[in-house]
Design brief:
Length: 320
């Protein structure tokens, strides 16, 4: 942008000054317009690259452990040992199996690439962010890592997010497991279709929460009216029941990244430390009992001071 040189201020006349103001003004208008257009382009660009993966916890090479994608790892299983005893579905676990086919299993591995309708009470408990025939022998990545109190910032983030999702009385995350399936294809995939999803376990060793985060979900899909890619299911299963996310076992399961049960598109969250799966509209911990106790105590104080009777009497008299 070119601006004319300013003349010596001691020789500047009024007319010249007005001319100079006009020149600056004429230059400023297109400059201002170009700035506005540039800013608009930048904002459009920012919105264009925004995706649902913003809800993901950080993952990737240099940060996580990478599950090997060798030629014989089609249905691979990675055992993960915990440093804590994790309460899940009423039991304590010190390990979990990360299965390539979109599952975290406790106890025995699922070892099944074809999803089935939940619940399956005779099976060991498992979590299924996206249970299907995933194949990372040629491409795609699976990452995982555990987070402890040595990384307080991420634990604080998880705590804050859970407090927005659930009615928590008191909770402070002490441990997390983040497992991410990054751009994973399906077995026999001849296209470039891939899925990215994440399962996050969060606990204070008393309460345990589960998050499913969904990014770009491209398979299964329809091609000439025929489904390409295997069936898939998202849900969780324990020995007394389970829960299956909407549109599981249909071609529309890929739309899970546009849904939520916690008002955050692409995220589903559950409380899973007891055998009864808790959702975000339920009270977690002792909050409900404490609130009732506090209210009862308040009534007792009023009655002991005769204040309650005064309020009731005033209400009756106001009716006449």
């Amino acid at each position: 942008m070119y601006f004319p040189l300013l003349p010596n201020e001691h020789n500047l006349k009024v007319g010249e000054a007005m001319t100079l103001v006009g020149l600056i003004s004429s230059c400023w208008k297109p400059f201002k317009m170009r700035c506005s257009i540039s800013l608009l382009i930048v904002l459009i660009g920012i919105s264009a690259v925004t995706s649902s993966t913003e809800i993901f916890y950080p993952y990737g090479q240099g940060l996580d452990t990478l599950v090997a994608n060798s030629a014989d790892a089609d249905d691979g299983i990675e055992p993960i040992e915990f440093r804590i005893s994790l309460p899940v579905f009423g039991n304590l676990y010190t390990s979990v199996n990360l299965e390539n086919n979109g599952i975290l299993s406790f106890g025995n591995s699922v070892m099944e690439y074809q999803p089935q309708i939940l619940p399956i009470p005779i099976w060991e408990p498992f979590l299924a962010p996206y249970w299907s025939d995933v194949d990372i022998t040629k491409t795609g990545y699976i990452y995982y890592r555990q987070i402890y109190e040595s990384d307080p910032s991420l634990l604080q983030q998880a705590t804050a997010e859970l407090k927005t999702h659930f009615k928590l009385y008191k909770f402070s995350a002490k441990w997390m497991l983040v497992a991410t399936w990054d751009r994973v294809p399906f077995h026999g995939n001849k296209s470039v279709k891939s899925n990215t999803f994440q399962a996050v376990l969060i606990s204070d060793e008393k309460l345990t929460f589960l998050m499913y985060n969904y990014g770009s979900m491209e398979w299964p899909f329809l091609k000439n009216g025929v489904q390409e890619g295997p069936e898939a299911l998202a849900g969780l299963n324990n020995d007394v029941g389970g829960y299956q996310l909407p549109k599981s076992l249909t071609v529309n399961i890929t739309q899970v990244n546009a849904t939520s049960n916690v008002n955050l598109t692409g995220r589903w969250a559950f409380n899973i430390d007891t055998s009864v799966i808790q959702f975000s509209d339920t009270f977690i911990g002792k909050y409900k009992n404490r609130r009732s106790s506090h209210f009862t105590t308040f009534l007792c104080i009023l009655m002991s001071k005769g204040i309650l009777y005064t309020i009731l009497l005033a209400g009756v008299l106001s009716m006449y």
